[in-house]
Specification:
2 domains; two-stranded parallel sheet
Amino acid sequence: MSTVPPPPPPSRVPPPFLAALGLAAGFQLFTAWDQSHWWRLKEDYLFGWLVPAFVAFTVYDRWPRIAAALRDCAAAGSVRAAGLSRWGLRLGAGAMLAGGALFFLLGSFYRASAGTSQPGTLAITLGMVGIVLPLIFLAAPDSEAPVRGPLRQDPRVRLTALFLFPAVVWLVSAPMVSAVEAQVNLALLRRVVTVVAHVFDFLGMPIEQQGNVLVLPPIGGKPNHVGVEDACSGIRSLTACLFAGSFLAAVFVDRTWKKVLLVAAALGLAFLTNLGRSLFLTAWAYTYGHEAIEGTVHDVAGYAVLGVTVAGLLLLLPLLNLRLAAAGDLASAPEAEDGRNSGDGR
């Protein structure tokens, strides 16, 4: 007579970990409040309003894995990193927590004294990331009978990794310091303008590049030129595309290398679609004059960059999952063959 084992007891989140989650949420709410100034002020960071909702959804979506990692941390025989890895984890978590607290305090004091500023917002965001991740690691439950093992098998590391996107994604919605942001944009814009000039020259359409300005043939005797803000400002949507790629990678992709590949694809698609946007706006100005690309045409082309990038990433997701499915079929084929052989021999 077989006995049915009793169901496992209901999982219970340890109070220290709940307190750590509440504290982390408080730091992120303060960061969202500080960053909301830039979300209102700069159209390039308008996507920041989606960050809190997407962070909450990611934690909700990962909660079964978070609960499983918590049980693994507290279970008897739970692996703990040994040797240098053990001390490295402790020192790294402590140093990251101290550095995060320092950055957060500096950014908060800077904001209180000088008002909202990009350096202050960046310091607050870096400090929040430096506090949240080691806080999750240190709040992981202890095991009564741990065993020493390799670092990659330590469930505390796996638990902390589940909160990597909810913590680090705030760096994407925080504007960079003005000087750094200007240099990055300028370097990208120069490449886009150069490519556009070469394409028009290849097509036999006269065009002259003067720095980041494209001088087109005059229309109706009026000068006709396309500047950086007219045709190429959409390159700044790289941050929005980076956020979209990071979210899709965090929710729909499981392997680390595939997450990196998807984020890299988001950046590549963003650059290519921005290049296409610049070619389209320049061709429109070439035909109808530079005034024609202002307003609706300019805005629609800008939103199309993000839309096409997200659509491309959604099409890329099944290809990544298809590779997993094919590998699973190959792995199960020998087992099925063994089953058929054993059935024939009975």
